[in-house]
Amino acid sequence: MRMRKKRKRSEEEESAEEEEKKNRQRRRRRRGELGNRGFDTQIMKLLEGESIAWSEQENGRTLVIKVDEINPKMLSFFKRPSTSVL
What we know:
The protein folds into two domains: about 1-35; about 40-85, no CATH class. By secondary structure, it is mainly alpha-helical. It is about 40% helix and about 5% strand.
């Protein structure tokens, strides 16, 4: 049984692979799969703008909001669910 040698990758292939990996991570961040702190910050600012009390749990990925104080229809960033007929 003969062993095959691994082909050395060129620098171009390595840089293209790294770029693709970075792009995948960016897409995952946009979808919120990596705990995107930018999105969390946006939510916090919106809650503060509406004077709603909130706190952040120790893991840094969970926001605790007092639900009994929130009337979603009164929030400036509230979006009504779309009703579409199939």
